Hints:
single chain; alpha+beta; three-stranded antiparallel sheet; 10 strands
Amino acid sequence: MARRAAGTPEPAADPYGEAGRALAEGDDHLYVSSAAVEELGGLAPSAQQVEDLRQQLEATSVDVYVAVLPAAAGQVEGAPPQLLYEATGRPGTYLVVTADGRFDAGSTDFAGSRVDALAGEAYAESGGDLGTFLTAFGTRMDDLGGAAAEEGPGGLPVDARTVGLGAGALALLLLGSVVVWRRNRRRVERAEVGLVMPVVLADVTAYEEELVRLDGRLAPTRDQAAAASLSRADRALDRARSVLDRVERADEMHEVTSALAEGGWYLAVTRARLDGEEQPQRRPPCFFDPRHGPSVTMVAWTPRGDGPRLVPACAEDAALDGDGITPPVREVPVGRGLVRPFPEAGRAYGGWFAGYHGAETPGLLGGTPLGAAVGGERLLTEGGFDARGGWAGGRGIEEDRG
């Protein structure tokens, strides 16, 4: 018999009863089981995401109840939304997510097919990030609040169409009410690549432009040392392009950006040589936007909802910090035409960032949604700039800022 890891909470004997009591007694709309958090590990929503979602659900124009439960809850006989509704005893829309990657949605107020479709849309938008999925579902239900319910109240207890109680209904609503995350992982991977690809291409383009500019300056000088460093930068670019041509998952982007980080230093060496300056220290790219090039120092940065930490900054952003201005953090697309500062983006950007900052990634992103989404992934401790050159960074502003 397998043994539980020390400190892992025992799954609730009646997960739906426990969740229902917590929602009803606390007059709450969100329940996250500690057992589910343990099972999800790095995929669990961050504390900030949980708090933000709780506030969102409380303000939603219709009653929405969300429960994140351990995988064992999926083995309980009955439809999860129905079970949670019966345990809570309140009409409304219910979304149950289990730690093995399944979710079910049902409602007493709206047609099951409509709620299922909204859940499916929210999942597709999330790129597989649980916190983003839950938030997107809450947003869609809020948008639905102004429309009249397609079916009368009482759908959950009496109407199989609402929650898919029968086997036939489950089969018909497979794309919405019973989506198996792992079975759909390939689709999610393609969506994640599509999301992050424009950002990586912008990085490659900025790199290429600088390389061409330096090549134009180099031609009349015949400086052999500068030519050698620029040649290394060109080879790094070739390596990044080669990986980019065969990327199938967003986390593979760390190979692309790792090559750009290394080559970016060679570009800086070439520039210094042509400007008659000393060779720069080997440092990671600017945290605020890697297109700024290698960093020159560390500055304090405080993400929303967490404490300060030191991050690498380029000369321009360091000057802003010196003037008491917080440098702007690069914004990236997160779907539906929306952009967010990259620390608040989904897990699709984990590989992109980790390639630039390697094992320092957890310290730099700790306490942010992106850090929570990718915190347990192995790529964060493999490779990275620190493994090639070394630099002091991460959380704790008591460190030397020079």
